[in-house]
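Students often ask why inverse folding is considered easier than folding. One informal answer: many sequences map to the same fold, so there is more than one right answer. In these notes we will look at a single instance of the problem. The structure comes first.
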């Protein structure tokens, strides 16, 4: 073990505010991601009144809503939850690319951490695997990443 000053984020959510931005598109999957994220935050000390859920039509609409939430100062961290599932046309690539770029841009522009819980899968089975079955729950992972990052940023 190296004896150097180390800054790391502990997973303590008490007294922090969170906004979840979740798409209605593929809500069968997304509702599982929301459940995982809320459960994680509560188990790590967040109170229900400090967690807000905003529903948006699809992944493409997440960045503009995230931007307004971030600028409002009402959320210490934002967690974006959605599922983009590949179809027969290139639409998938455009939605994924714009949603991903947009969320990264908003996070850097505003300084508010964003947990990236957007599944981008080739088929429904891969999405189900990541929404609370074989491959875990990416809503939990996104909430954990947002909380850890928030706690790191608060120490800098
Ligand atoms: N939005 C999603 O969140 N997931 C998808 O799988 C998806 N597909 O496949 O089309 C999707 N499209 C909608 C898009 O995000 C916008 O809501 C729509 O284009 C209106 O702006």
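Output (designed amino acids):
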């Amino acid at each position: 073990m190296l004896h150097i000053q180390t800054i790391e984020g502990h997973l303590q959510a008490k007294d922090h505010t969170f906004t979840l931005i979740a798409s209605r598109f593929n809500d069968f999957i997304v509702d599982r991601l929301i459940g995982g994220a809320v459960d994680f935050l509560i188990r790590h000390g967040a109170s229900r009144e400090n967690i807000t859920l905003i529903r948006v039509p699809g992944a493409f609409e997440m960045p503009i809503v995230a931007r307004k939430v971030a600028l409002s100062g009402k959320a210490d961290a934002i967690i974006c939850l959605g599922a983009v599932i590949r179809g027969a046309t290139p639409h998938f690539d455009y939605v994924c690319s714009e949603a991903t770029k947009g969320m990264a841009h908003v996070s850097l522009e505003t300084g508010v951490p964003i947990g990236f819980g957007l599944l981008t899968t080739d088929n429904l089975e891969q999405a189900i695997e990541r929404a609370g079955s074989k491959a875990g729950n990416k809503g939990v992972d996104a909430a954990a990443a947002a909380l850890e990052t928030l706690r790191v940023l608060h120490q800098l």
